[in-house]
Amino acid sequence: MQTYALLFILLQCLLMNAALGAQQGPRVQVADPFLELRTGPGRSYPVFHVVERGQWIVILKRRTDWFKVRGASGKEGWVKRQEMELTLTDEGERTDFNEAAISDFTRRRWEMGIMGGDFSGSDVISLYGAYAFNANLSGELSVTQLFGDFSNSIMGNIDLLAQPFPMWRISPFFSLGTGIIDTNTRKTLVKSQDSTDQLSHAGVGVRAYLTRRFILRAEYRNYVIFTSKNDNKEINEWKAGFAFFF
Amino acid sequence: MESRLRILFLMAALPLLAYPPLAAASAGADQEPVIKPEIDRKEIKVAKIDTEDFEIGAYAGIMSVEDFGANLVYGLRAAYHVTEDLFLEAAYGRTDTDKTSYERLSGGAELLTDEERKLSYYNLSVGYNLLPGETFIGSRRAFNSSLYVIGGIGSTDFAGDARFTLNFGAGYRLLLTDWLALHMDVRDHIFDIDVTGEDKTTHNIEIDGGLTVFF
Asked: Which residue of A46, A74, A146, A172 pairs with A153 in a disulfide if CB–CB is 3.0 to 4.6 A?
């Protein structure tokens, strides 16, 4: 009985929250002749309602470039960002959503990405995170999984990246770093030669700003693996992938 | 003497400075406005708007592993919607596999240990919403839905080794509410395996359904 009462109270709280939550959110005024509300966050969803000029709408939430709004009549629908930017705020000014733009790309602090490619015949999947000390210099940590014909490896790297032209949309960079590689021979091979070695590398690459908080990245690296035997292995790696910045 | 005269002049000029029209005139001469207009734009802060670009959820289904039977597969997936069309997805799944026909017929020759028979995978994929629109259920209800194609790279841990895996497929996302979605997915996991003697490329089809939450 007590649990039911508790559940009931909890449910009430949730409902209250939902009701209160519905009240919140910034409001903007329609300045164009009308604003189209769609049933979903995309251009292919049908327009089912229009809000006229001068009416106020409340912004409820956002998904990608679409905003869910509630009109004075209580109707809720989705509006594209470009149309939302034509509305006016409480101060009578154009609404600005502080969109991430290319200027944010040059000022980015954190970057995270995923790349795939080739490590002298082995397939590569690499995950990295970077922190920019300033516009030109950033530090980076990465974990890479390698899939070879005879062995699999996990590689951890720490790098320093220099970006001479941070203002460019397509911006080249140079990298220098060191790391370790842990190699396990494939199980089906009889002669097992598992090993953990140190390595260092140098490389060049390019970042290209795509849209919003999104970048494309491609790079080449030359690795020198200091094996326990007396010959160092030199390996070329090519990879490309996507990254976010924030 | 001279400085005393200067003080006298200055004292005489003091009331003049206090006289408002003159004071204003002198300020005007410096081209400095008396009241500085507030030119800072008051923008709607993004933080105040609840963005829902992330999607996270679980799924379960059947995965057929070539030579090793079809079994229950379950996993977790997380997606980030970059635009209304494009999204990135990371998934992790696991399944058990059966004995191959050879192992059953030969009666005893085991290819893999029990631990090696467990398969797990992760993948990172890019998806494209090919057919976004509405799905009608009955004459009164319409749900937002989308058919998407998806493909990517990942790793499959099976038979004692990690194997580079390509995946591609298609899925259907039905939004029950703004934040709750039903998924149906068909995915082909392609990887090389050398357990049965020589290296061969295998196609491993997975069919699953799941629930995700947008946040």
From this structure: A146
Task: Confirm or reject contact between A104 and chain B (CB < 8 A).
Answer: no
Do residues B93 and B72 touch, judged by C-beta distance below 8 A? no
Closest approach of chain B CAs to the CA of A22, in angstroms?
12
| Sign of the alpha-carbon dihedral angle for A6, A12, A16, A19 | positive
Question: Is the same domain home to A40 and A123?
Answer: no
Max CA-CA distance within chain A?
79
The parent domain of residue A121 ranges over 104-245
The whole-number pLDDT of residue B166 equals 93
The reply to whether A121 touches chain B by the CB within 8 Å rule is no
Dihedrals phi, psi of B156, to nearest 5 degrees = -120, 125
Find the domain containing B72 and state its range: 46-214
Q: What ipTM was estimated for this complex? A: 0.75
Q: What angle do CA B81, A155, B77 make, to 5 degrees?
A: 25
| Distance in Å from the first CA to the final CA of chain B | 82
Strands (E), chain A: 27-29, 34-38, 47-52, 56-63, 66-70, 76-80, 110-119, 122-132, 137-147, 151-162, 170-185, 195-211, 214-226, 233-245
Global confidence as pTM: 0.76
The answer on pLDDT for A140 being more than 90 is yes
Q: How far is B94 from chain A (nearest CA, A)?
A: 19
Question: Does B214 have pLDDT greater than 70?
Answer: yes
Residues A68 and A166 in one domain: no
> Using CB atoms and an 8 Å cut-off, which of residues 60-79 of chain B contact chain A?
none
Does the pLDDT of residue A3 top 80, yes or no?
A: no
